[in-house]
Amino acid sequence: MVATLRVMLDQLVAPTEPEVAEASRELARALVLGAPSGCEVEAIAPAGGVEGALDAVPGLVRVRRVALPRRELSAALQLGVGTGIGGGMIHSPSLFAPLVRHDRVHDHDQTVVTVWDLRPWESPSELPRAVLAWHKAMLKRAVKHADAVVVPTHSLAARLLEIAPALRDRVRVIAGASPLGFAVPTDEVGRRRSLGVPEGYVLLAGNPLASEGLDAGLAAVVASGVDLPVVVIDVEEGHEPAVADLASAVGLPERALHVRGVLSPEDRAAVFGAAVAFVAPSPRAAFPWRVVDALTLGVPVIAAASAVHDEVVFDGGVLVSATGAGELSAELGVALAAALGSTAAAERLGVLAGDRGRAFSWREAADKVWMLHSEI
User: Fold this and answer.
1) Angle 348-353-355 from CA coordinates, rounded to 5°
2) Which pLDDT band holds residue 242 (cuts at 50, 70, 90)?
3) The pLDDT of residue 307 is above 80
């Protein structure tokens, strides 16, 4: 008998969160590549969306398209009404899944969902009301009906159990990673020229209106005294002026700032390829995707100490503790200046980052997902 793992890939055909879309694609690829003997992978996706998007995951045995488009399917999942998805062994790289009553023992139905970010519970004011309501409703449904909830770090697992203690022993830790084969491309210089970014800069990521400490990161570069440009990526379209305002407020010259949006993995790797350091000031309880990118590519990491950063960065970078935003900027600045103070210091941090980066792998994550479903 063949065991079919049914993976929710809504984010591939109708992306709403770029990081989750990338994680969905990479996990699905790894699940196909690492499928045990007698196992196969099927995709579940809403109607409509981007044509051919699922071609990015070769090796799927079939694609099950439900009748509802993503928005209507999202509402149906929130209410727990019929969706046409059916049962079986379902894995979702998000909370987007049919969280309804099912019989795991007799019908062998099981549903596993994933939580990457606790912003709906820790920074609810940053989200639209409808998005906030959906996430909270889906976690409540997960508490009632999920066979397991995956989170990427032990610190997030502990915090999730504070929010939803009824999950108890159903929480599992499986980390994310950079895309399979993530490496600085051979045409990196040309890609950077096309993006209009210089060579040799301090790199940051995030949005100015979120609790990601972007202002502290920009202030840290100024405090460090290093005379280098600053590149900020992952900025949502339309928020570029807000980043410029933050930079101006901390004294960073406009000519030194380069703001870019969400990039393809190849362009992102090219941008990391010319970064002399990556500064991560965010205290958020969320998986730090760009920190993992920096570690994977051996870019020196200067990060604000937090439960998540302490666990992810560990000994692969410099972790800075502070009690307030002003102190954090100053301490990050000191650490950045020290990291770039000599070629030897920068090279040492790069080696430490690369060593730590090898701890994150989608192939390993996929093996753990297969093991999890076999144990449920």
Assistant:
1) 95
2) very high
3) yes
3-state secondary structure 317-357: CEEECCCCHHHHHHHHHHHHHHHCCCHHHHHHHHHHHHHHH
Span 12-60, pLDDT tens digits: 999 999 999 999 999 999 999 999 999 999 999 999 988 899 999 999 9
Cα distance from N-terminal residue to C-terminal residue, the chain = 18
Bridge partners of 151, per DSSP, are: 173
Query: In the structure encoding, which two tokens stand for residue 320, read together?
Result: 């800075």
Q: What are phi and psi of 50, to 5 degrees?
A: -75, 120
pTM above 0.85, yes or no: yes
How far is Cα 21 from Cα 26, in angstroms, rounded to an integer?
A: 9
Structure tokens at 347: 């090279």
CB 142 within 8 A of CB 99: yes
- pLDDT, residue 51, reads 84
Provide the token pair at 88: 């079986």
Please state the three-class secondary structure of the chain as a single string.
CCEEEEEECHHHHCCCCHHHHHHHHHHHHHHHHCCCCCEEEEEEEEECCCCCHHHHCCCCCEEEEEEEEHHHHHHHHHHCCCCCCCCCEEECCCCCCCCCCCCCCCCCCEEEEECCECHHHHCHHHCCHHHHHHHHHHHHHHHHHCCEEEECCHHHHHHHHHHCHHHHHHEEECCCCCCCCCCCCCCHHHHHHHHCCCCCEEEEECCCCCCCCHHHHHHHHHHHCCCCCEEEECCCCCCHHHHHHHHHHCCCCHHHEEECCCCCHHHHHHHHHCEEEEEECCCCCECCHHHHHHHHCCCCEEEECCHHHHHHHCCCCEEECCCCHHHHHHHHHHHHHHHCCCHHHHHHHHHHHHHHHCCCCHHHHHHHHHHHHHHC
d(CA 115, CA 174): 11
Read off the tokens for 123: 């920074």
Residue for token digits 């093996």? 367
Confidence grade of residue 209 (pLDDT, cut at 50, 70, 90)? confident
